Amino acid sequence: MTRHFVENDLLxxxxxxxxxxxxxxxxxxxxxxxxxxxxxxxxxxPPPEETGTSFLENAILKARYYSKHTGLVxxxxxxxxxxxALGGAPGIYSSRYGGKEGDSKAAMEKLQHALAECxxxxxxxxxxxxxxxxxxxDGHIETTTGTVGGxxxxxxxxxxxxxxDPIFIPxxxxxxxxxxxxxxxxxxxHRFRAMQQLLQQCFY
Length: 204
Known about the structure:
The protein is of the alpha/beta class. The protein has a single domain, classed as Alpha-Beta Complex (Maf protein), CATH 3.90.950.10. The longest helix is centred in the N-terminal third of the chain and has 16 residues. It is globular, with a radius of gyration of 17 Å.
């Protein structure tokens, strides 16, 4: 049975500052009531090892970990880029694809090299995937997912967003996520689609 969020405090369970900023904006624009948001930077907890084999498994793992150790309802995200020509890579390894956690420049360069190695030619079809898990301290979990398809374009363009945003062109658009304002990206993103579902499911 679906559980509704009635608490006043919510932990955004990520160390990624780009994701934290997006979650804050999503709540400010779409959440039907005032909630006090906390982030993992307020705690000294090390991030858990992400041993899941899917975005959803990793989102659940992180939400459970942070909820258990803080006593707060925790919202965790696991998301990434899946490139068709590379069999869905980098997938759940998106944030570590460049070798160092969060090294977007190296990850995009490696991706371009991998596409050249497999003799793939444009358009490079890809999709961003997002899984959200909302976990209560008693272990109850609510989950949603969101996907946006598109293509990749090199070299990277735009200074907005984070991660692979400068090379991802969402379907029906000519600009990358990196060239869009935060509000424009939010209206099209995988994270927004997953969040819309979660708000409808648990917050209304």
